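From the pipeline queue, job 12 of 40. The input is one protein chain; the requested action is below.

Action: predict structure.
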Amino acid sequence: MEKIEPMADTLWMLGRARDADGVPQGARIVHRVDLMQRGLAWHPDVSHAPGYDETKREVEARFASL
């Protein structure tokens, strides 16, 4: 039996929300990646799927700026 790793349909990246004085007030959505549109959602071997490497680099770059 083939093992399929679960994968989300959408990746939501959260960043810190701040009030007018710069005080952290929780989190806010700063970026959304539609994995379904990119053909990466529920893929049985997602790390070898076309577009995976580009998406990974994009997410890593955005995450570094949060």
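Job complete. The CA atoms of residues 18 and 25 lie 5 Å apart.
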